[in-house]
Amino acid sequence: MESGIVKRIVESSMAVEREVISIRRQIHRRPELSYAERETSALVASKLRSLGMEVRTGVGGTGVVGVLRGGEGRVVGLRADMDALPINEEADVQFRSEVPGVMHACGHDAHTAILLGVAEVLASNRDLLRGSVKFLFQPAEEDGGRGGALPMIEDGALEDPHVDHVFGLHVMADCPAGVICYRPGPIMAAPDSFRVRVRGRGGHGSKPDDTVDPIFVTGQLINAIYGLRARMVPQTRPLVLSICSVHSGTKDNIIPDEAVIQGTIRTLDEELRSSVKIKLGNLVRGVCEALGAQCEVFFEPNAYPVTVNDPSVTAKAIAVLREAGFPLVEIEPIMGGEDVSRFLQRAPGMYYFLGIRNEQKGCVYPNHSSRFKIDEDVLKVGVSSLALLAVAFSSKE
Ligand SMILES: [Zn+2]
Ligand SMILES: [Zn+2]
């Protein structure tokens, strides 16, 4: 890309920096949980309208879509998520959450503010766009089940005009401040959750042979499920299996009737994902049958897909960012999940991480920590990188 274009985008991003930080703090003070992003989406819609955009509100719930029309080139979708988490904030900042028990601990306040900054930068540099840009502000990324992206897509967010490419970013405490961390191909996992209900037959703790002890069965199941990772899938394929909740029983001398196990399965390809679910189901049923217990195995049906960065789009995007002088680091995949994957399934694009870690400023706590803190100096990097990608990909060349 011409250096003059890069210069204009970078300068415009610097010019909106203060406003982006102030919007971010405003949203930070008023965090809203998944599907309840009413104030946030109203703020987004009014800002987009003030920039003269076509705005649709109530898209798939509280989602907002803004369109900036350019030439006859491609349509680039830029995505930000808006929801907060059920966490009581303990971060060392002056603009702490005013809502007890709710906090922007994943940085979605920053994503929303960054994307509003991009909207302003591109609205004032419209002549650089060869095509149109669609701003996708989504609810409920943290929901983990159906999420907010799918309802927006079902409500037509990617049509009229049809979106050709999607880009988005996430602030990341594991990456140094201002660094863009990227990866072609799968960058985040499909996060499947499972629940097993073991039905035995309870009785007196002194007479286990009269019972079918669901706690004993659960012990065997834990070994078998972890054995699946160790012995039943190729060692070269990434897979995380974690049992994170086990519940049963009430008292030291009562063998209970039931036990419930919950856990998560993380995979980076859809083939392994479906085969692991089948194997886990068979294994659980087999162990329970052998030990005389009954069981139900339940998988969350709407879990997010693998987040896949299109290799050729990523190669071009990284070349644009490298030429523009952004610090870049290629990373290993992250086994967390993201429903930006739903957009990327339908429009090839790239999702990347923006580092916010800064020891001097105390920005060292991980995403989802009650002390999560962002180095706000990086927000302008988020703005300029997304704006540049929109300009680059709006062209048909
Ligand atoms: Zn999160
Ligand atoms: Zn997040």
Task: Walk across the major sheet and give the strand order.
Answer: 1-2-4-3-5-16-6-15
Bound ligands, each once: zinc ion
Give the DSSP E fraction (strand runs of 2 or more residues). Answer: 25-35%
Compute the number of structural domains.
Answer: 2
- Give the name of the CATH superfamily of the largest domain: Zn peptidases
Distance between the termini: 11 Å
Number of helices: 10
Which runs of at least 5 residues are low in confidence (pLDDT < 50)?
none
Biggest sheet layout: 8 strands, mixed
User: What is the CATH C level class of the largest domain, in words?
Assistant: Alpha Beta
**What are the secondary-structure elements, in order, as H or E?**
HHHEEEHEHEEEEEHEEEHEEHEHEH
Based on the coordinates given, report the CATH architecture of the largest domain: 3-Layer(aba) Sandwich
Overall 3D shape: elongated
If you average the pLDDT, what whole number results?
Answer: 97
Radius of gyration: 24 Å
Oligomer: single chain
Number of strands: 16
